[in-house]
Amino acid sequence: MDLVLATNNPGKVSELRDLLAHSGVTVMARPEHIPHTVEDADTLTGNAAKKAREVCAAVNKPALADDTGLFVDALDGAPGVQTARFGGWEKLLTAMDGIPVSGRLAQFRTVVVVAYPDGRPELEVEGTTNGVILTQPRGDRGFGYDPVFVPNDGDGRSFAEMTTAEKNSISHRGRALQNLLKRL
User: Fold this and answer.
1) Greatest distance between any 2 Cα atoms in the chain
2) Residue 25 and residue 74: Cα distance in Å, rounded?
3) How far is residue 126's CA from residue 32's CA, in Å, rounded to a whole number?
4) What is the Cβ-side half-sphere exposure of residue 131, based on CA atoms within 13 angstroms?
5) What's the structural domain count of the chain?
6) What pTM does this model have?
7) Which residue segment(s) compose the domain that 173 sits in?
8) Cα-flanking dihedrals φ and ψ of residue 70, to 5°?
9) CATH number of the CATH domain containing 22
10) pLDDT tens digits for 91-136?
11) What contacts 51, CB < 8 A, 6 or more positions away?
12) Cα–Cα distance between 131 and 56 in angstroms, integer?
């Protein structure tokens, strides 16, 4: 199956290609002529579906989109659906200044949607990873909030300290795509 990616985020494109590399799914980059999708839905599913539909309509091919949110308990679930527009991990650490490690619980959630041009129902899956937010960044791999997020089911390293394969095996996006492959 061929899927056009609805993202133009280079970190996500690389991660999605790695995650789908040996699956029989071929991914194509989002064509540059397609305008950026305004992510104005109030849910991850709404944003992912909107992106997938727009790209699918523009290229008349199945399109895969995801939306990811970081939900921090101490911030009442923020940044949540606004994660990409929140201001990065630096702003997150400032917002959490003074909160002890025991109060830094968080969850990454990814929703993946595949839209089809032939009218088939959209396919929607989710993946989650629970963890904690560090007080200082660690590592130089990955992208986004990876330097400040330590997954519970890891070995104490942040996502940014892990190799791509290590991160993909336990990440929210990796889990969502594993769920997707089971349903394709």
Assistant:
1) 52
2) 39
3) 27
4) 25
5) 1
6) 0.92
7) 2-183
8) -105, 115
9) 3.90.950.10
10) 999 999 999 989 999 999 999 999 999 989 999 999 999 999 999 9
11) 6, 7, 37, 39, 63, 65, 67, 113
12) 34
